[in-house]
Amino acid sequence: MHTTEPIVTGASVLGIQCVDGVVLGCDTLASYGSLARFQRVRRIVQPGADWVLGGGGEYSDLQEVARLLETMVTREYCQEDGVVRAPRAVHRYLARVMYQRRSRLDPLFNSLVLAGRGRFLGVVDMYGTAFESHVVATGFGSLLALPLLRKAWRPDMRMEEGAACVEHCLRVLFYRDCRALSSVQLARVPAEGAIEVSEPYELGELQWHVAQTVA
Fold it and tell me: Which InterPro entries match (predicted)?
């Protein structure tokens, strides 16, 4: 069935490239229209061993993207030739899928962020536009969080600092974006070692007294 209008949607996804890996973050809210209906939705998935995917937009379309990637990974495994797509190859595959669906007038209403080994960080939107960068943000985060990420980023930044920066940006989005939530999820993709996708947890140190200074 064609998705003609997003109904259950997720908000921003943020990513930052560090000297020892990549950090990805988003909240766990899936809004039903303007209602904060589903508050423990995981929008970061790990279909492959070397990369993770975070998605905003229509949640059912994100589930379809995850299914496509899981099918791709299963087919690779069944080939038994030892060939596995690198994160950059998966990123390009997603760009082709999104562009093909858009050209059929049956788009997947998502903005996707892929983080992988080799400090890879890339974005694909619903039109198939794809690019790589050291800091990325989708949704309202591209307006509110991206300037903060760019200001904080350093070439020698480590993942601990990157995670703290992403948390800070998610906190700002919770203050400013009515589709954001204080329950968040982070993924850490180190250059070496196991990928860690956190369980949903609450942001601390929320300071609502600053609302008095906002017009």
Answer: Ntn_hydrolases_N, Proteasome_beta4, Proteasome_bsu_CS, Proteasome_sua/b, Proteasome_suB-type
SS3 23: strand
Question: For residues 132 and 142, what is the distance between their CA atoms, to the nearest angstrom?
Answer: 14
pTM above 0.90, yes or no: yes
In this structure, which amino acid lies at residue 203?
L
Residues taking part in catalysis: 3
Average pLDDT per consecutive 10 residues, the chain (215 residues; last block may be shorter): 80 97 97 94 95 97 96 91 91 97 94 96 97 97 96 96 96 93 96 93 82 68
Report yes or no: 10 and 23 within 8 Å, Cβ to Cβ.
no
In 3D space, the residue among 7, 6, 39 whose CA is nearest the CA of residue 185 turns out to be 39
CATH numeric code, 8-213: 3.60.20.10
